[in-house]
Amino acid sequence: EVHLVESGGGLVQPGRSLRLSCAASGFTFGDFAMHWVRQAPGKGLQWVSGISRNSGNIGYADSVKGRFTISRDNAKNSLYLQMNSLRAEDTALYYCAKVSSGSWYGDAFDIWGQGTLVTVSS
Amino acid sequence: EIVLTQSPDFQSVPPKEKVTITCRASQSIGSSLHWYQQKPDQSPKLLIKYASQSFSGVPSRFSGSGSGTDFTLTINSLEAEDAATYYCHQSNSFPWTFGQGTKVEIK
Predict the structure, then answer these.
(1) What is the predicted pLDDT for the residue at A77?
(2) Which residues of A touch B30 (CB under 8 A)?
(3) C-alpha span between B67 and A61 (Å, rounded)
(4) Res B68: pLDDT
């Protein structure tokens, strides 16, 4: 069975850093682009960042560009999100998501993790 | 950035009735439009990909249509378990974006 399990969330002060991880199982991780999507409490979904299967293509939302860094380790079946200079508005449930057919453009997110909560507050 | 506008924001519908949710893109996105269902305290689930392709295991009462800028999610014969928020999502051009969501309540 295909699974994505996020970890690394928690309470952090503004300006500090946090690293999220997403452990994948049940599929050939290196064959699929992966993404991070977040959801602030009571709000809708916001795409954060994505990375192609070989890390050759990477994209970020303008709101996190320059502060967040996405990466992956195909040998470890893992996706990461390094979050620096955190702000209160980054408070959200962070989901990792797998694309349905491996493509970089045009693809849907067919599998989502359960999310890890990041709270930025002093 | 491509803006996706869903309508309505909220819909209260009796069981067995038909539900129609629309998603309008601020510019043409071809068929790179996908629909998700999110129930309270759950992760989003893919319903429809590429505007009209049903995802594996999704009940046949869910269907999608459209291309370019105008898209529709239809739920035929609404069931109690369909109470949820529905989101459209475009992956035609960066940054990927989502609609604001449509909450469907069972009347």
Answers:
(1) 98
(2) 106
(3) 25
(4) 97
Q: Is B10 touching A (CB cutoff 8 A)?
A: no
Is a pLDDT exceeding 90 seen at residue A103? Answer: no
What CA–CA distance (Å, rounded) separates A68 from A61? Answer: 10
Q: A100 vs B87: CB contact, 8 Å cut-off?
A: no
DSSP assignment of B7-55? E-SEEEE-TT--EEEEEEESS--TT-EEEEEE-TTS--EEEEETTTEEP
Q: For residue range B55-76, what is the model confidence (pLDDT) as tens digits?
A: 999 999 999 999 999 999 999 9
Is residue B41 over pLDDT 90? yes
Closest chain A residue by Cα to residue B41: A114
Which residues lie below 8 Å from residue B58, measured CB to CB, with a gap of 6+? B46, B47, B48
8 Å CB contact of A100 and B49 = yes
Record: contact B91-A44, CB cut-off 8 A: no
Query: In which band, very low, low, confident or very high, does the pLDDT at A10 lie, cut at 50, 70 and 90?
Result: very high
Angle (nearest 5°) at CA A98 between B73 and B8: 25
User: Is B82 within 8 Å of chain A by CB?
Assistant: no
What pLDDT, in 10s, does the model give residues A38-93? 999 999 999 999 999 999 999 999 999 999 999 999 999 999 999 999 999 999 99
